[in-house]
Amino acid sequence: MEVSPFLALLLLALLSLLLFFFSAGRKTSPSHAGGRSLPPSPPGFPLLGHLPLLGSLPHRALLSLAASHGPVMLLRLGRVPAVVVSSADAAREALKTRDPAFASRFRSRMTERLFYGCDMAFAPYGEHWRRARRVCVLHLLSQRCVLSFRRVREQEAAALVGRVRAAARDGAVNLSDLLISYASSVTIRAAFGDCSSYGLGGGGKVRKVFDDLEELLGSGTLGELVPWLAWVDTLTGLDAKATRTFEALDGLLEQVIADHRERRRGGQRVGDDGGQRDFVDVLLDVNEEEDEAGGLWFDTVTIKAIVMNMFVGGIDTTFASLEWAMAELINHPDEMRRLQEEIRAAVRDDDHIIEDHLNKLHYLKLVIKETLRLHPPAPLVPRETVEDAELLGYHVPARTRILVNVWAIGREPTTWERAEKFLPERFAEDADMDQYMLGQDFTLLPFGAGRRGCPGAGFAMASVELVLANLLYHFNWSLPGGASMVNMDEQGGLAVRLKKTLHLVAMPWCSE
């Protein structure tokens, strides 16, 4: 449920009481652990630590704090210590030089509840994570697997163009809704195959559930950080919402897996109509192979957890990247015209774009790369230390949460000239996406780096390139009502999105 005005006033009064006892002028003295210096830390609040400083957009607040306290900074999030990394040098040391020491992920109550405590993305470093990641990389997200879903992407991109064309007849197009429908459809078809039997065509029925899931993952629980405020999670309805969301998704996944198993018993392999096996079918293969070998670790619960990871990563990354790219291009019409000219010259006599065209589109890759620099899908990359470690000369104790602010690193003024400007040409000599998707350049980390880097980057970017090219080939775009700029305010969450829905006028373009 929504927080009532009365509750909001109650919480405000509580925070005001704490602020009354806080002396803002008090400076934090240098911290030491066994004679070793901990990272610098700004003044905090009693009991809450630095939580009130984060606000609704933590990546921005943390950049402001780093400007005063340095690229490696210690915060107290309630009772939980967290080190914030805000520079390329610090990220390189944490995610490459000392990657094994920083290789875990912290467990939260929310991820435990929503991902069964046995997924891949949020799993702590260990044997389960290694085996789960190996299955995902080899069987679900390899280059061969990504290519095998080409037909799905091309069909859904063509369907999106058709929906835009139909919506444009009635005025401005709600492009945000259409983009998330596209991202959901591609991901659901890859995960489930023929999703029509589950009532998921276009992603409409499940949209609200996935929106709730993302909101829950982005919010976390206050009681975990400040135990004496655990009652707030109940009073605001957060606990009830988490239960409802989990039950809805769990019921859907149980239905899908049971249906796949039933068809397999009849000798069928479930897949998309093009013959490609979907994620659930592949994971059931792994389950049966492990069962025959006497290893039962990869059970139904683990399959559900990994499919949930695929949903969150695939939908969020694709949708957020596309929405930010379109918003930036609307605000930079010269860059949009240049990209449209490139696309239309490359396609020429064809009436639609397929993936064969994408290798000819050099400027398209520059635009996507610049979009990822300014708007990384996940602005804060979480880690946790598995042992005592050092970072730029500071001591970081074992089991300390690490937050790598990739949003801040992408705007570091010592690295990027005119860092706040949208300038795709800055990458003119370096259009290759692989080093960024693999986390090999620590000045730009949209998908993280090291052994915990996102293995699904190739899957998401294939969807982004194809749809962006199609939208700019088939339509000329503008803002309704004579407006000249998209409002670029952000909405926080697991993936940071535009705060306001992107409504645009789409004028069909004819090549003749």
UniProtKB/TrEMBL annotation:
Required co-factors: heme
Residues spanning the signal sequence: 1-25
PANTHER family: CYTOCHROME P450 71A2-LIKE, CYTOCHROME P450 FAMILY 71 PROTEIN
Keywords annotated in UniProt: Heme, Iron, Metal-binding, Monooxygenase, Oxidoreductase, Signal
Descriptive protein name: Cytochrome P450 71A1
GO terms, molecular function: heme binding; iron ion binding; monooxygenase activity; oxidoreductase activity, acting on paired donors, with incorporation or reduction of molecular oxygen
Annotated source species: Panicum hallii var. hallii
Family according to the record: Belongs to the cytochrome P450 family.
InterPro entries with a match to the protein in the record: Cyt_P450, Cyt_P450_CS, Cyt_P450_E_grp-I, Cyt_P450_sf
SUPFAM superfamilies: Cytochrome P450
Pfam families: p450
